[in-house]
Amino acid sequence: xxxxxxxxxxTYTGKALNLALVGSAALALSVTCAMAQDAATxxxxxxxxxxxxxxxxxxxxDSAMAExxxxxxxxxxxxxxxxxxxxxxxxxxxxxxxxxxQGVKGVATVTMDSVVALNWVESAKDAKxxxxxxxxxxxxxxxxxxxxxxxxxxxxxxxxxxxxxxxxARAVIDRxxxxxxRTAKIGIVEGQPGYAMVDQLSEGFTAELDxxxxxxxxxxxxxxxxxxxxxxxxxxxxxxxxxxxxxxFSHAEDMAIGCAQAMEDVEAPGKLVTAAGGAERAxxxxxxxxxxxxxxMAWADMGAxxxxxxxxxxxxxxxxxxxxxxxTSALIxxxxxxxxxxxxx
Length: 345
Known about the structure:
By secondary structure, the protein is an alpha/beta fold.
């Protein structure tokens, strides 16, 4: 039923930039309870330096995770070193080695490539420090089940995006967003290649449509760099070729923001749904129905959980345990945004 179409050293962001990355007082308030709870269960970080590497400081979820990590480490008495890879896997690799050379007790990354990350796991293991992957699993997602965490990893803090794709597609079906008298047209605004969630979200979404016996066609599916501008570009081009697209599925709310503008520009009649949501700047689009369905991600809490896992391992004096810390995001729409997602990022 379906048819598819020279190494640069890392730059410290420093504590001053950390504060600027997420300057919202609302975010700070929303994560305080989570920080305190995680700090209480993981123990003291007194005298510890722990590192966190964002894929890019320009990605708002990354900034929120870094802020959650920093607050958790500092609340436990430690020092957080926050770096940005500026979208470069090579810079992320160099950053991990820089942090190891500085004697940090553990490193967490917003993992840009789940396969390349196997090398980072080995580097951390050789240095006898903890390593946490945030938002993404470790290993090839095509051959490694989400629940199968590498035993040399301290923890994976992530959502099962395969399941998220299933949940969103099921909601699309149940809410009558697809036609029943003809082939439905689906557009997909993908995340950046290399992230495990990219394949998982698309696979889960289309698998649920297949399981439900939906007659559909994927009329466009293009990768992005996670930005609203790139999301708008993909949707503009996709709608030019298929203006009667019924549902556009965005892998993240930032791209959905741009896609909503593209849909408005051509008065596209279709519905826009997205994963990785809960952003303050997208809340107006959710309330208006321009984004028909989103999810509420607790990014800062994920950063805090990563810090707690590293602190716990460092205090235990033992090696990695390959722990899965699974998170789940609530589905949100215009009717339940405030109740289901009170702490927007």
